[in-house]
Every structure is written in structure tokens, then in C-alpha cells.
Fold:
Amino acid sequence: MLATNDAARSQNLARLTVESFTLSSDTARPQVDVPFHLIVTLHVRERVLEIDNLELPILAELELLGDERQTSAGPHGTLYRETITVAAHRTGTLTIAPATLQAIDARDGKPKQWYTNALRLQVGGVSREILRNDEHAALAVVGAVLRALLWAAGIACIAAIAVLVFRRRKPPLPLPVQAAAPQPLQAPRSRRDQLQDALTVLRADPTRAAAVRVRSAIWRMVGATDGETLGDVLHRPEASDARMRSLLIALERGAFTYDDDLDAAIRDACSALERSLGNL
Amino acid sequence: MIVARQPADLRAALAQTIVGQEGVIEALLLALLSNGHILLEGPPGLAKTLSCRSLAAALDGEFKRIQFTPDLLPSDIVGTRVFDQRESAFATVLGPIFANVVLADEINRAPAKVQSALLEAMQERQVTIGPQTYPLPDPFVVMATMNPLDSEGTYALPIAQMVRFLMKVNVGYPTRDEELRILDRFAIADTQPLRAVATLDDVRAWRKQAHDVHIDEKLKRYIVDLVAISRQADRVTVPTENGTPMRVSELIDYGASPRATLALAYLARARALLEGRDFALPDDVRAVAAHALRHRIGFNYRLTTEGVSMDGAIAALIAAIPAP
Structure:
């Protein structure tokens, strides 16, 4: 958890008592090209209708397939659960950065930032692309799908049993998947990793929403908060480098330009990201 | 001679004549691009008149200056009908308001009916003299000045009339370096305003471009929030003279109207164009917010008794809304 001093920002933050804030996956070994779920679970003591200022990590190496949010308030507080459906297209180790939440800590009245745990997953299997040229591709895909279905059925059964058992014990409020105290600040990712993540996201998802999200991520990287303007950010010493300045300006264009200019703006932002990466 | 193709070129040309006062130059251009009028408040001798005269010269437009005095009549501004004995008929003599750039100097020195005549013309962009209605030239920009120091013998502009101005700009003293440059430029060298660096057609084209500048939905919400906070400023505080924080809502009788929302959008678009963009940014909105809100918020007497500056209170309101 990290205390922040931005008074202007804190005036818009909710006052929350965070009981647990976790990031989990429905599988520790996802298969390549097979959708799986990442689950962000937040339990707060207050009854609230919605959770603001919760930032998901940039899922640079994953394809985003869906995002479902559920907020249930009960006598023991509010349980927020966001289920993100993703698919990996490469095998190997996959590291997912923590999600963050900014709120006023109701315990001491100070604005703080909470972090979930990070996730490290081992993606297995064979890529669909590779299988396409293989004479056994069809069989392998069928096998993968069957395996995925078996996994999904197994997980569903386990989840159903767990829910039934849990409901018998504590009817009003389900426990979070990985109930734990708010996690301490994780070791920060390197600047190169963050820039690479941003580039991957923009290339994979060249939309306004992705541009806005990447803008936020790069702003945080240079120590700025979302409530500032580009002018404020450009005055920061972390943004004194010419390449970084041009990147920040390009991302601002991506976030605010008109629709017809969006593709060009995102291409410009990608070029600026590449230049920044080349500079490191 | 500089050939202006973009509004920024006109700004550069004006900066060659006027030392410092970049904020005033930018404000004049924003008013011009937004098809609005501007109220300049500042002590005498801060190049307010020179700025307006230079702008008119740079545009190759007609410039008129009206010195407002207590004995001024509405007909001295808009014009009148006089009897022509040779023709045995009434002829209309158009007043000084028929110009592209009109400087209304010390507008608060004339009585309310004269102020009203000017402000109505500003709003309607036409003047009726006798039975005939005359359209004012296009572009038509009124730049009015007020001196905050000599309040004796003045007629304060009511807010209902003040809001006819798109923006109100406080003109401050130059820095030491700027004052040295003023010495060099005007006391030693003989500097003349640059003439005809842009045309009135250029201005009309720029206005069209400014109108087409894109404002994103996030930015629209930001603009609305900035205006709305002036009506519900309970959660915003500002330090008083003795350092204790005070709620800004206690200093405000009434907040800005939706006209301020429109003004903010117009000015943000104009600033984006001035910066060479065809889309507006949060920086554009924030840069013009104080100019658009300053004369539209009804502050009460406690502003003075608590020793809070108006601009300080407005800055607190602006800072309370995080930019998108």
C-alpha cells in the first residue's frame, strides 16, 4: 500500500476499508489459445454501489476476450469481482502485474493505493498457428478443446461444490478466491517492460480505450497521476527526455483526437513507443 | 513582413510589437477566433490599448477607440440621424462602433445606458438607428478595458452585462526583464506595429476551423464539471488571510451559468487551433477556465473580508476537478 499526497485527486476517492484485494487465475497452467479467466476480487467493509479507481494491469501478452464485473453488497460489506476472459497465444512464463486501487483508507482517513498480488502463469500447449501446418492439427485442436472442456467442467464442479459448502457456512457473503490482507507494493517493473507492454497493447488493440489506458500507464511511469494535464506532466523531470515528451504528446493525441484521426494517432504513438524503447 | 497563414503566425507578429503580455496577446486572439468579446482589467500603462491597436493593424482591419466618460451618450457610440438641410432629409451618421476592432476604454466610466448600448450591439451584432438596422462589420471584436484602481466616479458593470464578454482577463505588470525590453524597444528604437500580416478573410476562415475543432466526450464532461463546481463548491477550500481554510461555497452567492460552459468550449477550441491542433486537450480547457469563469461567478463580500483573492478561489475550484 502506498500513501499518496495528491489532495485534488483524493477529494474524488471513495472512503473504503479494504479487507482483501487479490488477483487470481482459474488455472495456473493455461493452454495456448485456450481462454481462461483472471479474477480480481475486492472485499471492502462498506456497502457501496460501485468501485471506482480500480486499475487492471496491462495485459500485454494476452488477448482480451471479455470483462465482467459483479458487485454484491451485504451485511458484511461489499464484494467486487471482476472476471477478465483472456487467451494466451504464446507458450512460456506469463507475468501479470498487480491490479491497483486508489481510495481513502477509512481506518486513518489517508489516501492510499492498494496492490493485489502479481501472477506468474506457465502457458503450455502448442500454438494454433504452428498446428495449422501439421497434419495432426485437427486432432490436436480437438484434443485441446476437449481438455479445455474437461478443465472447465472440473473447475465448474469444484466451484459449484465450493459455493454450496461456503453458502451453508456463511450465507450472506462469499469469501474472495484468495482471501488475504492487502498486498504490499510489488517490485516495480522496469521502464523497458512497461514501454514494451504499452506497445504490445496498442498494437493488439488499436482503440481509443486502449490508448487512454496506455496513457494512464505511461503517466504513472513518469510519476504523474490521472488528474493532471499533459502540461503538468511535461513539467516533470521524468518527462524531460525528448523521446518521452514526444511519446506523451502522441498518447494525448490518441486519447483526445477525433475518430478519423485515431488510427494515425495510434500509429504515431506506437512509433514514439518504439523510439523510446530504442533509447533505453 | 510576416505572412500569416495560421493564427500562431499572427501571435508571433504581435509579439514583435508588444513586449511580454503573452497572456493578453493570446486572449485577444482567442476572442477573435471564438467570435467573442474581451474585457481587460488592469492598471493604466500596461499596453492594453497598444495590444488592441496592434491587433487591428495586423489584421488590416478598421480600428476605433471610444473613451468612455460620464457624459458619453449612446448615440456617441452607435451613431445618430442628423438633418441635412441641403437635401432636406435625415441622414444617418454611423458611430465608432462600426469597426472591426473596437476598443472601449474604461467602460465603467460611462453610465449604464451607454454601457447597455454597447453591450446590446455586442450581442446582436447590429445596430438600429431610427427606422434602419445596420449590421456591424465581420469580424467585429470589442475589447473593453477597466481600471481596478480608480473606482471613484465609475459605474460598475452588473454581472448580467458582464457575461456578454466571452472572457475577462486580468492584465498584470511586466517582469523586470520585460520592462528592460520595453525600454529598448520603445524608448530607444522607434517600433511601429506590424501591418496587414493577415486579412479579415483569414480570420473568417480561422473561425470556421476553430468551430470544427473536435472536443472529446471526456473533455465535455470535464468542462461541465468545471462549471458545476462553481455552483456546489462545498468540498473546495481556500486559505483565508490568516491561513485558516474556508469553504469556497461560503464566498459565492451564485455560480456560473451554462453560458460559461459554452464559453469554455469555444475558448478551448480556439486555443487548440492557436496551438496548431484540430482537437482540444484538457490543457486547453484548463488554460482558459479562469478567463471564462472570472466574471461569471457571483462572489460575495466575504471574499474581501476574509482576504481571499478572486483568482485564488477560482484556481481552487479549477484544481478541484481532476483533468480527464
In short: The mean pLDDT of chain B is 88.
